[in-house]
């Protein structure tokens, strides 16, 4: 074996022509190796510099390893291991603030979107339509009748329960609010649904 080419997984867009050019350069230059060098696309002052303690290793690591270690609820360490050294960069996360906000949201009760998404899932999966109707009614009550996408789903659930009069009423409301919002897709969808349901009454 006369030559070895090392391609990192971080270079997925490398072209065959680049490899050929580098190989020709290696042969013509009579050097022992060739490696690519590129220019910063922005001032070097914007590069990130981190200070960390370097720990020696008892044995050599041939392949550079990047890992997340010392993982806690709000902190961890980014570790880089290569050759005979290991460098750890500790960092912290704003997890406490996010968790507290999530807990407060859950404990305050479901939102209109929660009710809507649950009802939509139940309808799409063919699950209990009565429960789906309760959820979408709660969503519309919280969000208001201007939420045409919610009243449209409400109409579809009524139709699933064969309550076509209620389905048409919700579809008309959805179509009216969709027209105000300029959403022609919902206007068209509601018109088509009303035509179908009117024949089933």
List the SSEs and their pairings.
Layout: H1 16-29, E1 54-69, E2 75-92, H2 95-107, H3 112-124, H4 129-143, H5 148-160, H6 164-181, H7 184-198
Antiparallel strand pairs: 1-2
Brief write-up:
The chain has helices at residues 16-29, 95-107, 112-124, 129-143, 148-160, 164-181, 184-198, and strands at residues 54-69, 75-92.
Uncertain runs with pLDDT below 50, 5 residues or more?
none
Tell me the radius of gyration. Answer: 31 Å
Q: Give the percentage of residues in beta strands.
A: 15-25%
| Helical fraction | 40-55%
Please trace the helix and strand order, writing H or E for each element.
HEEHHHHHH
Structural class: alpha+beta
Give the second-level CATH assignment, the architecture of the domain at 110-198: Alpha Horseshoe
Strand order of the largest sheet: 1-2
What is the CATH top level name of the domain at 110-198? Mainly Alpha
General shape: elongated
Largest sheet report: 2 strands, antiparallel
Mean pLDDT, to the nearest integer, reads 89
Oligomer: single chain
Superfamily (CATH H level) name of the domain at 110-198: Tetratricopeptide repeat domain
Q: What is the CATH topology classification name of the domain at 110-198? A: Serine Threonine Protein Phosphatase 5, Tetratricopeptide repeat
Query: What is the count of helical runs?
Result: 7
């Amino acid at each position: 074996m006369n030559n070895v080419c090392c391609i990192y997984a971080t270079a997925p867009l490398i072209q065959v022509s680049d490899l050929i050019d580098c190989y020709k350069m290696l042969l013509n230059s009579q050097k022992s190796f060739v490696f690519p060098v590129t220019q910063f696309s922005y001032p070097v002052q914007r590069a990130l510099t981190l200070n960390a303690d370097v720990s020696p290793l008892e044995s050599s690591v041939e392949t550079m390893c990047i890992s997340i270690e010392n993982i806690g609820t709000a902190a961890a360490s980014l570790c880089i291991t290569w050759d005979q050294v290991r460098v750890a960069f500790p960092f912290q996360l704003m997890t406490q603030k996010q968790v507290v906000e999530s807990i407060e949201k859950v404990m305050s009760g479901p939102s209109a979107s929660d009710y809507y998404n649950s009802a939509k899932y139940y309808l799409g999966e063919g699950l209990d339509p009565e429960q789906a109707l309760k959820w979408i009614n709660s969503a519309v009550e919280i969000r208001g009748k201007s939420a045409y996408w919610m009243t449209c789903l409400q109409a579809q659930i009524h139709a699933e329960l064969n309550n076509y009069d209620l389905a048409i009423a919700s579809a008309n409301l959805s179509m009216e609010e969709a027209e105000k919002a300029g959403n022609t897709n919902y206007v068209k969808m509601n018109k088509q649904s009303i035509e179908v349901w009117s024949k089933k009454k």
